[in-house]
Specification:
Layout (H helix, E strand, L loop, with lengths): L1 H9 L2 H17 L20 E2 L4 H13 L5 H17 L9 E2 L9 E2 L4 H16 L2 H17 L11 E2 L18 H18 L8 H10 L7 E2 L11 E2 L5 E2 L7 H6 L3 E2 L2 H15 L9 H18 L31
Antiparallel strand pairs: 1-2, 3-4, 5-8, 6-7
Helix pairs in contact: 1-2, 2-3, 3-4, 3-5, 5-6, 7-8, 7-10
Length: 340
């Protein structure tokens, strides 16, 4: 996507060529189901599993669709058709999307908001509607929109869980991911509801927002952070170690869990963003005033400068000492995460 965006800014043919090369690699890695797993191994058979984790399949589809708006290529069009057919096929009866597809008899089959899985699927189908406007894509969005509405938990905890089982109940995922109300997931879903409202102008998508925002204010912890998991019923923060061992604080977790997972997070900036956007919608302003874009650009200057300054001498951004990867001297990382 970066090279395609660069082409849109610069108009340079080499940027478009690089985007096409990236698309060719993705299409080579697309499996028979129409999606992608965590990695593409060009020297071995393609995995017959589709991952909706970490925007893997969704990000690939969105990039291919965006490129399709700039070039005319039959192979690209066929890959997109195959991928969007997968999105329709993999969508659950309740309207959500699973963590992995096809079903394998585990928590991977459940409707999954964790890591914005369903939110990213909605972005795919939103782009599909904007680009191609087929009835099946609109029906898919209507279906997941209903799922967003019915999966909101009832007061006094009107947020969302990370995962839901086939009975629409919050469900266990990994041993340290209990059924719970999740503030971060709730923030993501409020943004997605507003996305759906702006696409469809259906005011029903706005109705869950006020209660959820009030709950987010109430559930903030004394340290100013939000727990990743809030116990259903008690409102207490939940901390689970490996083997589903519940502990009282993050200090009681093993170091691998304490440093390898975000049990507490500062959501204040994101919640403020939700509130500002929601207030704007309620005031029937589709966008900020004419002078607002200039102010927005000025506010971005320090961030852009910091990003540029972080490049090495070859113009790259290098991640070192990634806590999720196991490094072996002289061995190239195989694309698998050590913390699962």
């Amino acid at each position: 996507m970066t090279f395609l965006q660069a082409y849109h800014v610069t108009g340079r043919a080499d940027h478009l060529r690089a985007a096409r090369d990236a698309a060719s690699a993705l299409i080579r890695g697309q499996n028979v189901l129409g999606g992608w797993n965590h990695t593409i191994q060009f020297d071995r058979p393609r995995a017959q599993r589709v991952s909706f984790d970490d925007d893997q399949t969704q990000g690939a589809i969105r990039f291919l669709m965006a490129l399709d708006q700039d070039i005319d290529d039959d192979t690209l069009s066929q890959a997109i058709d195959k991928a969007l057919a997968l999105m329709i096929e993999a969508q659950l009866d309740n309207g959500g999307w699973p963590h992995m597809y096809p079903p394998g008899g585990s928590y991977h089959d459940y409707a999954t908001f964790n890591d914005q899985g369903i939110n990213d699927c909605i972005r795919v189908m939103t782009d599909a509607v904007r680009y191609y406007d087929k009835p099946a894509y609109r029906e898919s969005l209507d279906k997941v929109g209903r799922f967003l509405m019915i999966s909101q938990l009832p007061p006094p905890q009107p947020g969302w869980a990370q995962q839901y089982d086939e009975y629409l109940q919050p469900a266990w995922a990994r041993d340290f991911e209990p059924p719970a109300v999740c503030p971060a997931v709730t923030v993501n879903n409020l943004m997605t509801l507003m996305d759906l409202y702006e696409l469809t102008h259906n005011s029903l998508y706005l109705k869950p927002i006020p209660d959820a925002l009030r709950w987010l204010d109430v559930v903030r912890m004394p340290n100013g952070l939000w727990a990743r998991f809030v116990e259903i019923g008690t409102g207490k923060a939940l901390y689970y170690d490996r083997d589903r061992l519940r502990v009282d604080t993050t200090a009681d977790l093993h170091i691998e869990r304490r440093t390898g997972y975000g049990y507490e997070n500062d959501l204040s900036g994101r919640i403020d963003q939700v509130k500002r956007r929601f207030d704007g919608i309620r005031r029937k302003k589709t966008e900020p005033a004419a002078q607002e874009p200039d102010r927005s650009w000025r506010q971005m200057i320090p961030r852009v400068r910091a990003i540029l300054d972080a490049q090495d001498e070859q113009g790259r951004w290098i991640t070192r000492n990634d806590r999720y990867k196991q490094y072996t001297p002289g061995v190239r990382w195989n694309g698998e995460y050590e913390v699962t």
